[in-house]
Write a structure and sequence with these properties.
homodimer, 171 residues, alpha/beta, six-stranded parallel beta sheet, 7 helices, 33% helix, globular
Chain lengths: 171, 171
């Protein structure tokens, strides 16, 4: 039987930081250097976090993380993939996330998507996520996808990957 | 530690049949008698199932099942409640479902909501659902909420309840 692998969206499939830097610049004219954000929580990294994340189109127009389409396609053949995204805090994001997945990952069915508040109720064998708050409640193998907010976190429970090539190398 | 209880929306909190009978009558003029639907799958019970379920407002304006607000409030004090709804097949339903919950069940937080394709990945101790396809993949106690489509199903694995009073009596 195929192992079940839970794959996060924001920060793993969708390039959350690039989208935030672009929207922050459009909304407030502030140009933020990505290199200054290491170790900062996302909600502190962007001055207009709360309004930008709720703005129409934010999730629908997010750019892809490099290699995510090919990487997820590979995983989808080998594992039982579930896309698990924290989304119910932002009701407008729900349809945008599904439409975005349908556009860029047409091989992922609606049956493979879980939009939730907390991820601790979702069962699986492997989780790929950029947030320790999700990984820490997971009982299987924990793969942390490097993003500026998590870059200084050291935890022997996690396997750290910096890109999709590293994911397909180990899985 | 509180037990985790998974509560379905359509057919347990929302009166799916009453809403369908109303919409079928509005859309096609067909008056269907509820008593003629026993044992029929929902998709066969209503001639315009596919268009009605996708129509704007269908989930947002669904009536409540009697006793569901008081009953869920009771469960929410005693258990860790998660609302788990099959929803990703119908992208327009997602926000409607959250808005509907926020209106009628304001004591339920967005953190307690799971909108998914299949429910077999969601962990819990007790599940209340009207669909065997969901209950059969659940590892905990299975409570089937009577609805016309499931009324003839006999399965010793299920505890059958006909209304919310029976739920609060046994839980």
């Amino acid at each position: 039987m195929k192992k079940q692998i839970l794959v996060d969206m924001d920060g793993v499939l969708a390039d959350f930081y690039t989208q935030f830097l672009k929207k922050e610049s459009e909304q407030s004219g502030t140009l933020i250097e990505l290199s200054t954000l290491s170790g900062k929580p996302e909600s502190e990294a962007f001055p207009n976090f709360n309004s930008i994340i709720r703005s129409e189109g934010f999730f629908r127009t997010a750019p892809l993380i490099e290699g995510s389409v090919e990487g997820l396609n590979y995983l989808n053949d080998k594992y039982k993939v579930l896309i698990v995204s924290s989304a119910t805090e932002f009701p407008n994001s729900l349809k945008e996330k599904l439409d975005w997945l349908a556009e860029f990952f047409p091989f992922i069915s609606w049956k493979q998507v879980v939009l939730c508040g907390n991820k601790d109720c979702v069962r699986g064998d492997i989780m790929i996520d950029d947030h320790p708050k999700n990984l820490d409640f997971f009982e299987g193998d924990k793969i942390i996808f490097s993003q500026p907010h998590n870059i200084f976190i050291k935890n022997d429970d996690y396997i750290r990957v910096n890109n999709w090539n590293q994911i397909t190398d180990i899985l």
